[in-house]
Amino acid sequence: MSFTPIPMNAARICDGLSKIGYTPSSAIRDIIDNAIQAKAQRVYVRIVREQKISDARLNNVKEYQVIDDGIGMDKPSLINALALGSSPDDYGLHSLSKFGLGMKSASFSQGEVLEVISSRGNGQPFLKYVVSLPEIRNRQEYGADDVELSNDDLELIAKYLPEGHGTIVRVQSVRKINHPSIKSILEDLRMKIGAVYYYMMSEDGLVIDIDEKECVPFDVLFTDEANQNGILDENDWDGKSTRWIEKPTKVTIDADNGVKATIEVTQLPYPPSFDRDGVGKQKGIRDKYMIGAGNYGFYVYRNRRLLSWAESFGLIPQDQDYYAFRGRIIIDNSGDDVFNIDVKKSQIHLSEEAYKTLDDLSSEYRKKSRKAWQRAHAELLRLTNEESLTRANTIAAQVDEIEELPGMPDSEEAYQEAERREQEIIEEQQKRVIELVSQEGSNQNTPDTQTGLTPAPTPEQIQRVVTGGQATPNDKIYLVTSTVDNALWEPYFETGKGTCVRINRLHRFARVIYEDNRKNGGLHILVGLMLLQMVASEKHLMKRLTRYKREDTEDILQEYRRVSSDMLAQLCRDVGDKLPSDD
């Protein structure tokens, strides 16, 4: 058997490396990785503008510069760093590098020319090498040119590396085809740098300066807050605090390969809970904690460097009920094969064993997070609806029931018949209420030992069932969870209390009113008052429409409530996404 060497097309390889999916921000971060590997304490990222125009304009980046005060490189180290697939000899056990391609592929993804200037200090001069893609295409050979320092290079060294050691990476001839705006690049860098290098910045004192503005470390899990607030109780959480779902725990992520990881999970706040604190409070919380699509899931750190931002692994559903879920998985080099990390260190594909393990672990995390979010949502609805109901009932208490309307009989006999019918209405109402209390299991009185009969429910038990838990004696508008035929509303009549209305808050149309338009308290009040007056109208008809039997009138009105409620529910099914809402 003989070996036949096959030549490589250097230009094609470099062009291929330039198209593996870097953004300007991710490319710069890969170059920063080399600075950290070189034990830098300070890294400067500078963007040179092509023209003096707005940073919001596209295609205005002339050059990227990443400058670090690390140990620097001598000639052999510098040439190795520029090699495609650098020798692993320069990378330790906890290196951020994986394939020895990062600086080259990142630089080529943005520009046509890569310049590297470096010195180890101790009086050694700064060396400069240039890798030019146009030259590689022309020569059909990969390599670098050893060139003299320019005045611009000397100015950068004097300003940023006065100690005489460190490295400057310059990515020049930046491509001008739909290159993002400087504004968007800076925003992305400043948002993510603090999270990507959180451990180096918070524990090792690393300083990263982005276009003359120092970044701050950013803990995406807000663990300091979780430490203060404790463990999440998903059944009693108001949505206003960060809590632990799982404190840092060592787990075996892949038993077959002996790969271990540290997993921690927190529950971030539920932003709508802050609506009642004032205008703009919810937005402030969303911005602070980055609550929203694209930011929830697992953050994977390899050797303390963030690799994957908000990874779901197909385990965290795309549902806003999980927006407050934040997990962190910390691995070292031993997890590379299990997590199948790609060349640009940003895409992860779990091994089958790791997927099963993480699925088992995260099952309980998901349940707790979703239940907590839904509980906070329900609590906010309760408080908001309670507030608008209180206002609606305050107004209702100032309105007297109308006894006479034009076109109704006004003889003495008619008044007497109306009073008789009203008494019948109330008596039948009380019978139905007693049945309702028994059906819902709220009558827990002990049966009489002699008769075996269960005493009638107490007024408090009746009040609790009728009003859905509301205890204010003078209220007339109630939000409840069930009505006859699942109607949107139904009447309730009681001696001395007058006309009341029970509104089914689980009806589809009621959800549009009280949930989708949660912030619109005025709408809640008007709907409550309208339905109360509709019930008063029903009672008036049953009392005063004496040419019909009261029972017939009541049956017709009940059927009307059923039909109109069904039609409103169908309306929501057909055009629910077009109905007004807070969103």
Describe this structure in words.
This protein has three domains: 10-214, 2-Layer Sandwich (Heat Shock Protein 90), CATH 3.30.565; 223-374; 410-441 and 456-578, no CATH class. α2 packs across α7 (182-196). The protein is elongated and about 115 Å long. It has 583 residues and is of the alpha+beta class. Strands 5-4-3-6-2-1-7-8 form an eight-stranded mixed sheet, with helices on both faces. A five-stranded mixed sheet has the order 9-10-13-11-12, sandwiched between helices. The chain is built from 17 helices and 16 strands.
Briefly, what is this?
It contains 17 helices and 16 strands. The protein is α+β, with helices and mostly antiparallel strands. It has three domains: 205 residues, 2-Layer Sandwich (Heat Shock Protein 90), CATH 3.30.565.10; 152 residues; 155 residues, no CATH class.
Characteristics:
five-stranded mixed beta sheet, 583 residues
Task: Please write out the topology.
Elements: H1 10-17, H2 24-37, E1 42-49, E2 61-68, H3 75-82, H4 102-110, E3 111-119, E4 127-132, H5 133-139, E5 145-146, H6 151-160, E6 166-174, H7 182-196, H8 198-203, E7 207-210, E8 213-214, H9 223-229, E9 243-254, E10 259-267, H10 281-289, E11 297-302, E12 305-311, E13 325-331, H11 336-339, H12 352-396, H13 412-439, H14 459-467, E14 477-480, E15 489-494, E16 498-504, H15 508-516, H16 521-544, H17 550-575
Parallel strand pairs: 1-7, 11-13, 14-16
Antiparallel strand pairs: 1-2, 2-6, 3-4, 3-6, 4-5, 7-8, 9-10, 10-13, 11-12, 15-16
Helix pairs in contact: 1-5, 2-4, 2-7, 12-16, 13-14, 13-16, 16-17
